[in-house]
Amino acid sequence: MNNTAQVKHAPWWVGMIVPIAVIIVISVCYQAMANYLSVYVLQYLKGSATAYGMVGTGWTVIAMILRPSTGPLSQKFGSKTMLLIGLAIFSAMIACCGIFLTFAGFVFFRLIQCVGHAWSYTSANSLAAEAVPQNRMGTASGLFIGIPQAAAIVAGPWLAEALIGDDENWFRFFVGIAAIMVLGLVLALIFVPGRGKKHADPEAAAKAAAAAEAARYDADGKPYAGIWKFLEKTSVSACITMIIASMAHCTMFYLTAYVAATYEGVSAAVFFTAQAVTEFLCRFWMGPLQDKRGLKIILVPCCIICAVVYVCIAQGVTAWVILGLVYGVGQAGIKAPLNASLMKACPANRIPVANGTFQMANAVGLGLATLVAGVVIDAAGFTGMWYYCVVLFIVTAVLGVALVREKPGKA
């Protein structure tokens, strides 16, 4: 059981509602940019795939520093404070990208965006995770990761296309996304309970203080020292696996550019919509299955499914709806289950730190994905890139079996 005070007799999922809503806003905006920034850089700014990938590497370096720090900073200043600061930075930098439509402007403001995204996304996920008991973490992770991810996959590409328009107005694209982020900021400001409200409840304040003190010590009673103040030891194996899985997930960054370059007049948005449908539906049975049977029964077959889809894309298959539907099943069994696995393994009072460690791993993988895949594209074309990702999905399955140790919980 976690240390977050809840309303008596309230269902365990109630505390996740507002954090999930905020995560949806962040995820939709992030997905809209992730799907179309490659088009913006390669076609509008006339940059190379490698140059675009190098920006992703810069994002990775910043994420490696900031995401693990979010947990300790949240314990010191409050998760709501970190969430609001992150949302404000993220919104402002997106707007600046629209004002300065140059490659230099894109690089500078995109990298500062990472600061806001790291703090806001990690804090919102921690708020959701802390609201549920650990024996429900498989189901809960499927909700607070799965629902926003599905919403983002559906809404992100369509939102981007609507904002860009037939006239390819990139100013409208960036400023429109920034405006939506501001709505998320207002939502968090009004509805996420702050530290002051929690301190008004003596019992909640006492529990929070006790949790913060307990989080300073490991299971043997020794204080965490060095890097382990910011990273959770029990999360390392799942995080290594997540890095490779994120590197393999290149449809997020390059499918739109691939379709635009290979199939003139065709939109990739239908693939992402189809993906979201099955990915969302799978959340309702994969989470409970993991709570009963563990991670591997889900992770391995889902990695194989993703690999098969990428082989089909490389072979020129254009049945985008079918490919998206199948890919959604595969993706549903990777990120959320890995997150649930490490949340089950870590001490309850280290959930914010474990979540920061996991989100760092995801960001590292996505950052490396843009760089390495960009280099592969410039060297071997899109076809070479899809086969490279096939190998990564197979490696993810192997690592999930070899590294991740998890005892199935009791639902």
Description:
The longest helix has 52 residues, at 351-402. It contains 16 helices and no strands. Helices cover 77% and strands 0% of the residues. By secondary structure, it is mainly alpha-helical. The protein has helices at residues 17-44, 49-77, 79-99, 103-129, 137-144, 146-164, 170-191, 195-199, 202-214, 236-248, 251-262, 269-293, 296-314, 320-332, 335-345, 351-402. Mean pLDDT is 82; it is low at 1-7. Helix 2 runs antiparallel to helix 3 (79-99) and helix 4 crosses helix 16 (351-402).
Brief write-up:
It is built from 16 helices and no strands.
For the structure shown, list the relevant keywords:
411 residues, mainly alpha, globular, disordered N terminus
Topology of this protein?
Blueprint: H1 17-44, H2 49-77, H3 79-99, H4 103-129, H5 137-144, H6 146-164, H7 170-191, H8 195-199, H9 202-214, H10 236-248, H11 251-262, H12 269-293, H13 296-314, H14 320-332, H15 335-345, H16 351-402
Helix pairs in contact: 1-4, 1-6, 1-7, 1-11, 2-3, 2-4, 2-16, 3-4, 3-7, 4-16, 5-12, 5-15, 6-7, 6-12, 10-15, 10-16, 12-14, 13-14, 13-16
